[in-house]
Amino acid sequence: MKVLVIGGGAREHALCRSLSLDPDVTALHCAPGNAGIAEVAELHQVDALDGAAVSALATGLGADLVVVGPEAPLVAGVADAVREAGIPVFGPSGQAARLEGSKAFAKDVMAGAGVPTARSYVCTTPEEVDAALAAFGAPYVVKDDGLAAGKGVVVTADVEAARAHAGACLGTGDAAREPGRVVIEEYLDGPEVSLFAVTDGETVRPLQPAQDFKRALDGDEGPNTGGMGAYSPLPWADPKLVDEVVQSVLQPTVDEMRRRGTPFSGLLYAGLAITGRGVRVIEFNARFGDPETQVVLARLRTPLAGLLLAAATGTLADLEPLRWSEDAAVTVVVASHNYPGTPRTGDPVTGLDEVAAQDAPHAYVLHAGTRQESDAVVSAGGRVLSVTATGADLAEARERAYRAVARIGLDGSQHRTDIAAKAAAEAAEG
């Protein structure tokens, strides 16, 4: 099977790594990729948002499967162009990807499907924003309606900060842009869980749950980011959680999308809050999440290519039950100086060979924002690396991950030191 992966972050590196280990994959390509992905796949330069260019590349390569990683190409309809060329593609249509592309649309789908979620208001004027903020009170949850690379949400007790973010989303603040919509929600208490499901538009196959860490600093302090680390499994979670979410959230959403004439095929990601009133959906994404993908795929034992192809060809119901490792997995993101504000790029990355020589196979580095310059790997984004490790339990996986992180050199870099620490300590206490 020849596979083409679209994207160039750590999520795509994790996908390419798993696909490269799949014996059914005879050729692996990635566009545009990054310095790490180049070690396991042949790279191609193409505009990931250009459906015609991606389709032409897939056709030229004779690809048997195209996997679209990031959200922006999905919302832009890249998967549609590939399907029109007659090539199986893992990823929803542009219309179905609106589940992530518009939070207001997702709320409407959840209402139609009877999916439990936070109460919310969709606002288009500052007056509507003020009324919604007053209705819910602090802490305030303000969400950009459109795509924002994981950083469009502000949760704050400061009403002025909430108004400022809403104004930027609406195009009325100092950071004004094209007028838009903003979603104001009630705050959901309780731990958050990420649950992915592979679906062909009818059948839903859940993956193992994970938890990520959105805040930049230890103790969940600092600004929201695209994610600073993750772990799986969740020892504290109810064993029935996955089945409950499939029945109350994932399957009803897939059924509702099909009922509307926009079937959702690909990866449906439910961001969940486990509240005192039960499970509530925080948001949907239309693709694998980053950095949760890194730990979920580290534990998946079912060959990945066959799973994704079954979803792309409507044969998921015929697939055998998914197999999982009993090991735990932890990933720690190494980010550039001043991430998530205006991250510095172009700094050399060192220590990669040392991790490969001394920590493999239990720990390895997935590249997020890197590029090759002559013989050096340099930073090319805010999140630069995802250092991922497995172990018999979370404590061992953490120890291996942070030992590998210590070998990495990147001037001014930052990372959280508490990824999975609380869960590992609680698990050790029994």
TrEMBL record:
Q: Give the required cofactors.
A: Mn(2+); Mg(2+)
MF terms in GO: ATP binding; metal ion binding; phosphoribosylamine-glycine ligase activity
Q: Which domain of life is it from?
A: Bacteria
Q: Please report which protein family the annotation says this sequence is part of.
A: Belongs to the GARS family.
Annotated keywords:
ATP-binding, Ligase, Nucleotide-binding, Purine biosynthesis
For this protein, what is the EC number? Answer: 6.3.4.13
Give the ATP-grasp domain ranges.
Answer: 107-313
- Keyword Lyase assigned: no
The entry's protein name is Phosphoribosylamine--glycine ligase
Gene Ontology BP terms: 'de novo' IMP biosynthetic process; purine nucleobase biosynthetic process
Q: Tell me the pathway.
A: Purine metabolism; IMP biosynthesis via de novo pathway; N(1)-(5-phospho-D-ribosyl)glycinamide from 5-phospho-alpha-D-ribose 1-diphosphate: step 2/2
Catalytic reactions of this protein: 5-phospho-beta-D-ribosylamine + glycine + ATP = N(1)-(5-phospho-beta-D-ribosyl)glycinamide + ADP + phosphate + H(+)
Say which enzyme class the record assigns. Answer: ligase
Q: Which Gene3D superfamilies match?
A: 3.40.50.20, ATP-grasp fold, A domain, ATP-grasp fold, B domain, Phosphoribosylglycinamide synthetase, C-terminal domain
* Record InterPro entries: ATP-grasp, ATP_grasp_subdomain_1, PreATP-grasp_dom_sf, PRibGlycinamid_synth_ATP-grasp, PRibGlycinamide_synth, PRibGlycinamide_synth_C-dom, PRibGlycinamide_synth_C_sf, PRibGlycinamide_synth_CS
